[in-house]
Automatic annotation (TrEMBL):
Listed Gene3D superfamilies: Aspartate Aminotransferase, domain 1, Type I PLP-dependent aspartate aminotransferase-like (Major domain)
Species of provenance: Pseudomonas helleri
Highest taxon of source: Bacteria
Protein name in the entry: Aminotransferase class V-fold PLP-dependent enzyme
GO molecular function: transaminase activity
PANTHER family: BLR1280 PROTEIN, L-CYSTEINE DESULFHYDRASE
Length: 395
């Protein structure tokens, strides 16, 4: 395989990668942030595992998966993140993991404050507000200034910690689903520690497309998805808890399924998608063989820059993520400044240009159009987007 830094522009190479995915005829998908496609090989392996579990049923699950295979898979995830094996527990998705962390964090007293921002995922925001109501806490919400800069993002949290000294716990989204902004996690976590604030990190959109060192970031609590940028079947996620901080998270709903010091008691319990979990080793091997997050991220950012560089030159279009490489990834949003509601543009992109995108709102910059490239996205797809944006910018 060519060197990663040369590989991003190697269209023959990436065409061969795209050929590994089965893509239905129809609109060009520029909404790859919802969940990622499985490669053909992964989908075939998944189907074999469905058939196998359907045949073997609980005999295999109780004798093999519950006792050994699930732990082997857990260990592979820990190695992917370079963390201790006993710091990982399997969940159905990042939301399950994050909500468990939030509702079971036991370091709060009535009158304490929780911190969120306008960029959190809905399930995280709801969970923080629910915990506040249950325990007599106050929710502080900060709204990030737009356009964002690295320095202003960090300063907004430092200011919040100074203004609200009773903040004990905060949510932090690594990559916001609304605009694609990548938060300066390490600097924010360091500021939080200086003020005695614990951080629960939403890593749903980060894993698989961004290189990061979880320990270097200073994170003790996090939730992740595997069906976005890693390429696994749907319904796979996991919870991370630093083993030294396990006692700060109570067993979920008083779980006694495992001994209390076992992190698996902190994850919601239920019958998972076992065929999907049995497919994960193949997914992780493909991810590694491709070059991991480094190779994926370089290619995805290259495709992102192709359309963003053009869009920035068009009148009446505002790109909502800065070109600071520390703050950008495959997901980037834009808006047509003449419109409050961006849904009509989303509709026209689909009807007139065969481009599938999605509208998002909730952040300070208002309604926007989220564009997310994927590994099956071609330069021709990007050129079709550029053509559409040029024509739509003319009114």
């Amino acid at each position: 395989m060519p060197r990663i830094d040369e590989n991003a522009r190697d269209e023959d190479f990436w065409h061969a990668i795209a050929e590994r995915y089965d893509v239905a005829p129809g609109p060009i998908n520029l909404e790859n942030g919802y969940f990622g496609r499985m490669t053909r090989g992964v989908a075939q392996d998944y189907q074999r595992n469905i058939d196998f579990i359907n045949r073997s049923n609980s005999v295999h699950v109780r004798q093999q998966f519950d006792n050994t295979q699930s732990l082997d898979i857990r260990n592979q995830l820990a190695e992917l993140l370079a963390v201790e094996h006993d710091s990982i527990a399997l969940t159905n998705c990042a939301s399950d993991a994050l909500q468990s962390l939030i509702r079971n964090y036991n370091g709060l007293q009535p009158g304490d404050q929780l911190l969120i921002s306008d960029l959190e995922y809905h399930s995280v925001e709801y969970a923080m507000r629910w915990v506040a109501r249950q325990r007599g806490l106050e929710v502080i919400e900060i709204v990030h200034a737009h356009p964002a800069t690295y320095e202003h993002l960090v300063a907004s949290y430092r200011d919040a910690f100074e203004r609200y000294p009773r903040i004990k716990l905060m949510a932090l989204t690594h990559v916001t689903h609304r605009t694609g902004l990548v938060m300066p996690v390490e600097a924010i976590v360091q500021a939080a520690k200086e003020h005695g604030v614990d951080v629960i990190l939403d890593g749903a959109h980060a894993l698989g497309q961004i290189d990061f060192d979880l320990k270097a970031l200073g994170i003790a609590f996090a939730g992740y998805n595997l069906h976005k940028w890693i390429g696994a079947p749907l319904t796979l996620g996991f919870i991370y808890i630093d083993p030294h901080r396990l006692a700060d998270i109570d067993p979920d709903m008083g779980s006694e399924r495992y001994p209390e010091p076992d992190i698996r008691t902190r994850a919601p319990y239920g019958t998972g998608n076992i065929p999907a979990w049995l497919t994960l080793p193949k997914v992780l091997q493909e991810h590694k063989d491709l070059g991991g997050s480094t190779a994926k991220g370089v290619r995805l950012n290259y495709l992102r820059d192709l359309w963003v560089n053009e869009a920035r030159q068009l009148p009446g279009i505002e790109v909502l993520v800065p070109d600071d490489p520390r703050l950008q990834c495959a997901i980037t949003s834009l808006r047509f400044t003449r419109l409050q509601d961006q849904q009509p543009i989303v509709d026209r992109l689909l009807k007139d240009y065969n481009l599938f995108t999605v509208a998002r709102d909730g952040s300070a910059c208002g309604s926007c159009i989220r564009i997310t490239v994927g590994l099956a996205t071609s330069v021709d797809d990007i050129n079709q987007l550029i053509k559409a944006l040029r024509e739509l910018a003319q009114g």
